[in-house]
């Protein structure tokens, strides 16, 4: 067996995945054996090339199981477009659902969440509970939390995804306009509202000190006060900057909340019984 693997390795190294082999003396069954070996070793791109070679030489161009495994190889090798091309050729009833799921999953992994949902719906799987975990994931990444919660409540997945999705109801976002208004009234307060209390205290101190120095300069020397104009200019810059910083802080606070939810979603593996 080892000599065979060595010979096939040499042959494979001389040919790019998907090309016509130069050593035609290898039998289709030997090529299939090597392809299986590469797949088990997680060398998915080369495995895809060997399976394609076997597909041609064996004459099984329409074998749904072969098409499916080649599609999986390309999907696992991060070649989604090639993967979808193979999955789309499968019309066998025993693999049709799994192929449809793989296509939707590939769109999800590309970050094309709307296209993933569209594929599920247009192919008649919107009411199929096996596709609901993927639907929920797509909705969460689209930040359509209300629709995700409704689906999770109507058809629980029985996984951690349910609790993560329902937890979005308790997310307490900060309103950037409110943050800006608070810092307009009391410098730094908008940053405190967004959870940045150390920044809030610093902004309050700096704006308070420069404002007081400007006031002191104008009080002593009137409108011609150099000190008043210097500190007044600094006060204005810091004051406006604090208001803008409060808007940014609120948006960043909201983004951090969302990122924490989505990072948990990423960690959940597919276990819906559609795709292996």
Q: Indicate the low-confidence ranges by residue numbers.
A: 1-24, 270-276
Number of helices: 14
Largest sheet: none
- Average pLDDT metric: 85
Explain this structure to me?
This protein is mainly alpha-helical. It has two domains: 2-170, Tetratricopeptide repeat domain (Serine Threonine Protein Phosphatase 5, Tetratricopeptide repeat); 176-263. Helices cover 72% and strands 0% of the residues. It contains 14 helices and no strands. Helix 4 (64-76) packs parallel to helix 6. The longest helix is centred in the last third of the chain and has 41 residues, at 226-266. It is elongated. The two termini are 28 Å apart. Mean pLDDT is 85; it is low at 1-24 and 270-276.
Give the topology, please.
Layout: H1 2-13, H2 28-40, H3 44-58, H4 64-76, H5 80-87, H6 93-110, H7 113-122, H8 132-141, H9 145-154, H10 160-167, H11 176-185, H12 189-193, H13 197-221, H14 226-266
Q: Which terms would index this structure?
A:
single chain, 276 residues, mainly alpha, Serine Threonine Protein Phosphatase 5, Tetratricopeptide repeat, 2 domains, 14 helices, 72% helix, elongated, disordered N terminus, disordered C terminus
């Amino acid at each position: 067996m080892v000599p065979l693997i060595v010979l096939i390795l040499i042959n494979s190294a001389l040919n790019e995945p998907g090309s016509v082999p130069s050593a035609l003396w290898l039998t289709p069954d030997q090529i299939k054996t090597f392809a299986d070996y590469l797949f088990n070793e997680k060398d998915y791109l080369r495995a895809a090339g060997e399976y394609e070679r076997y597909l041609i030489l064996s004459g099984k161009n329409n074998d749904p199981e072969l098409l499916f495994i080649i599609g999986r190889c390309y999907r696992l090798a991060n070649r989604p477009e090639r993967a979808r091309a193979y999955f789309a050729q499968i019309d066998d009833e025993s693999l049709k659902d799994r192929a449809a799921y793989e296509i939707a999953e590939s769109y999800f992994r590309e970050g094309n969440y709307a296209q993933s949902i569209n594929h599920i719906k247009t192919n008649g799987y919107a009411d199929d509970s096996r596709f609901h975990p993927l639907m929920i994931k797509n909705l969460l990444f689209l930040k359509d939390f209300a629709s995700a919660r409704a689906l999770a409540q109507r058809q629980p997945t029985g996984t951690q995804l349910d609790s993560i999705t329902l937890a979005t109801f308790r997310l307490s976002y900060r309103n950037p306009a409110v943050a800006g208004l608070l810092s307009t009234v009391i410098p730094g307060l908008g940053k405190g509202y967004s959870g940045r209390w150390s920044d809030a205290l610093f902004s309050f101190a700096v704006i308070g000190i420069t404002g007081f120095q400007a006031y002191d300069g104008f009080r002593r020397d009137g409108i011609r006060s150099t000190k008043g104009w210097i500190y007044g200019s600094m006060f204005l810059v810091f004051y406006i900057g604090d208001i803008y910083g409060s808007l940014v802080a609120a948006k960043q606070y909201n983004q951090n909340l969302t990122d924490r939810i989505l990072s948990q979603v990423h960690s959940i593996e597919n276990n819906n019984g559609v795709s292996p």
